Amino acid sequence: MHSTAIELGRLLGPLRRSLLRATREAARLPDLPDSHVEVMRALVAEPKMSPGSLAEHLNLARSTVSNLIKAMVDAELVERSAASDDLRGAALTASPKAICLLVEYDAVSSQVLSDALDELTPAGRRALAEATPALADLTRILARRVS
Q: Does pLDDT of 88 surpass 90?
């Protein structure tokens, strides 16, 4: 096994959680679960998505998505309407509240990351910039394996 794989596995989760916490703290954003942020991102990218399509897009079980959607409708983050092609189906859309939260989260998150990058050495910043395309490729490879 690659030592890089072991180290990435150990670092990615804490990195993501640290960024989320720092972003929430900096902007006093609500304490939304990461899964809610992922659902909101998916629905902003593709409005009027069905619950089944959302589950497939996020690689989650339909029952998990159903529970997420119920909680997010209650929190006014997702709007649910009848699908235009099948009145028995549902169309999900990110609410205006969710869209505003994502815009704010992205702006603050970018600033938090930028400030943290400024604390790295120039070599560290270069290394991260050079690794970004490889991380995007790795994300696509892993996503294909679970599809």
A: no
Closest by CA position to 38, among listed 15, 65, 13: 65
User: Is 42:49 a contact under the CB 8 Å cutoff?
Assistant: yes
Residue type, 24: R
**What are the two backbone dihedrals, phi and then psi, of residue 82, each rounded to the nearest 5 degrees?**
-70, 140
Between strands 78-82 and 90-94, the pairing is antiparallel
Residue type, 121: T
Residue 32 has pLDDT above 80, yes or no: yes
Cite the beta strand spans of 13-129 per DSSP E: 78-82, 90-94
DSSP label at residue 120: S
> Helix-strand-coil percent breakdown of the chain, rounded to 5?
70, 5, 20
Look-up of token digits 């609500």: 30
Q: How confident is the model at residue 67 (pLDDT cuts 50, 70, 90)?
A: very high
- For residues 98 and 38, what is the distance between their CA atoms, to the nearest angstrom? 11
